[in-house]
Amino acid sequence: MARLDGKVAIVTGAARGMGEATARLLVEQGAKVVLADILDDAGEAVAQDLGDAAIYVHLDVTDSAQWQAAVTASEVFGPLNVLVNNAAILIHKTIMDTTEDDFMAVARINQLGVFLGMQSVFEAMKAAGGGSIINVSSIDGMQSKNSLLAYSASKWAVRGMTKTAALEMGKYNIRVNSVHPGGIYTSMHGMEHMTREQADAIYSQQALPRVGMPVEVAAVTAFLASDEASYSTGSEFMADGGWHAGAVNSGLPQL
C-alpha cells in the first residue's frame, strides 16, 4: 500500500516548479491530484504525463467561483482530503518603489488565494471526515530581506492564517500547516538565468551550502499530506537548508 493511497488533493501553481514537483510526488505516492494553475498548456501537459491519477483545471486563485469549480472537479476522484496552497508571485522592489498595485497584486495571489482555498475546501473536507491543508509560505515568512516588502508581508500573513485555520478546523480533523522553503531552484528563483553552480554559490554560508530542489520541498508537503503527520497542525515546517539557523562565519573555527 502506497503512503498516500486514498488521498485526493488539489495543488495550486502545479504547472511548474514546486507545484509540479509536489503533484508528481503525491501521485507517485498514491494520491489522485487535481493540478490547478493559469498556465493551461503547461498544466495540461503535466496532467497528461501523470495519466489517470491526475486532471488539470484552470484556476485563478483570487476567484472564489473558480475555486468552487476546482473542488467540484476533484469529486471525480472521491472525497477531497488534501489541499496544497502553492501558487504565488514575487516582486523585487524597495519600499519606495513598490506601488499600491504591486502590493495588492502580491497580496491577492499570495494571501487572498490561500484564504479562498482554505474556505473553499472546508465543507468537502468536513464531509470527508478530515483532511490536511498545506500552505506554502517561505523563509521570508519567518524573517525578510530588502526588496521583499510585499512578498514578505504576504508570506507572514500565510503563516498567521495557517494558525487561525488550524485552531478553527481542528475539531473537524482538518490539519493546517505551513511549509517554509528557502532558496529553491525554480523559475521564481531565476533558474533560467543562472546555472545550478551559480545558484549554489548564493547559499554558501548556510548550513547546507547549496540551493534547494523543488522535490525536497515536495517531500515535506507529502509528509504533511500523509497520516504520518496526524498530530501536527498549526505549525511551521522548514525546508531551507538551514538558512533560518544562521550563517556560517568563515572567520570563526569550523569543523
UniProtKB/TrEMBL annotation:
EC number, UniProt record: 1.1.1.47
Record-level Gene Ontology MF annotations: glucose 1-dehydrogenase [NAD(P)+] activity
Domain of life: Bacteria
Cross-referenced InterPro entries: NAD(P)-bd_dom_sf, Sc_DH/Rdtase_CS, SDR_fam
Keywords: Oxidoreductase
Record carries keyword Iron: no
Pfam family, one: adh_short_C2
Assigned protein family: Belongs to the short-chain dehydrogenases/reductases (SDR) family.
Database matches in PANTHER family: 3-OXOACYL-(ACYL-CARRIER-PROTEIN) REDUCTASE (AFU_ORTHOLOGUE AFUA_6G11210), SHORT-CHAIN DEHYDROGENASE_REDUCTASE FAMILY PROTEIN
Name of the molecule in the record: Glucose 1-dehydrogenase
Protein source organism: Sediminihaliea albiluteola
